[in-house]
Specification:
Layout lengths: L2 E5 L6 H11 L5 E5 L2 H5 L3 E4 L5 H10 L2 H11 L3 E4 L1 H4 L4 E2 L5 E2 L6 E5 L17 E9 L13 E7 L1 E5 L5 E6 L3 E8 L2 E4 L7 H13 L7
Parallel strand pairs: 1-2, 1-3, 3-4, 4-13, 5-7
Antiparallel strand pairs: 5-6, 7-10, 8-9, 8-11, 11-12, 12-13
Helix pairs in contact: 1-6
């Protein structure tokens, strides 16, 4: 029986994520929404969702020991999926809240969208946060893109975006007044700025791909 842990540190839309996973996995797969380090350590795959401010997320992760659980899952080589803030906390630091140190698992920074950005096609002013459906272009091959076309639309809700030190970490790109990395991937990590659990067919396909992903055999 496969076990997938959804990390509960008080900052994520856990019900939507767990229900979406239940929809795409086999009946004998156990979805664990938990803040128990032992249960997370005993899981085959780990999902870290999140929403809110960077300093609140980092404080909550540390308060319940989930920062260590994230590091351990990644160090163990288990498939790891970060969603929204679950992506941003993996970077070195965020500009949010006057500067917030993050987990520094993926080298890079989290920056705020500029005010006054305009849509390249219409010239219209763009609002921050970036909220709604936007196409994501594949920027590299990855097993989690299986059966998902490049430029498939996913649901976003964010004011900050990630800037990795290494360009090849970005396997998905989005345009919102500028090009930004919508997905970072490295080894057993796949982390997306968008919400697959809110992204209809293609989002469910990505979660299904994650549930079957063997990082050691990809590419």
């Amino acid at each position: 029986m496969q076990r997938i842990a959804v990390i509960d540190y008080g900052m994520g839309n856990l019900r939507s994520v767990s229900k979406a996973l239940e929809h795409v996995v086999d009946a004998d797969c156990e979805i664990r929404v938990t803040s128990d380090q032992a249960l997370i350590a005993d899981s085959d795959r780990v999902v870290c969702p999140g929403q809110g401010a960077a300093n609140d997320c980092m404080r909550q992760l540390a308060a319940c020991g989930m920062d260590a659980a994230v590091r351990q899952a990644i160090s163990d080589g288990r498939p790891f999926l970060g969603i929204c803030m679950g992506l941003q906390v993996l970077l070195t630091a965020s500009e949010e809240n006057g500067g917030t140190p993050c987990l520094d698992i993926l080298a890079g920074q989290v920056k705020r969208f500029s005010h006054g950005m305009r849509d390249a096609a219409t010239g219209n002013l763009l609002k921050v946060p970036h909220m709604g459906w936007s196409p994501v272009a594949h920027a590299g091959k990855h097993a989690l893109w299986a059966d998902i076309p490049s430029q498939a639309r996913f649901y976003f809700c964010h004011s900050y975006y990630v800037v990795p030190d290494a360009d090849d970490l970005a396997v998905g790109q989005c345009e919102y007044g500028q090009s930004f990395a919508a997905v970072l991937a490295k080894d057993n990590i796949f982390a997306c700025q968008f919400h697959p659990e809110k992204s209809a067919r293609d989002g469910l396909q990505l979660l299904a791909n994650f549930a079957q992903w063997s990082p050691s055999s990809q590419h």
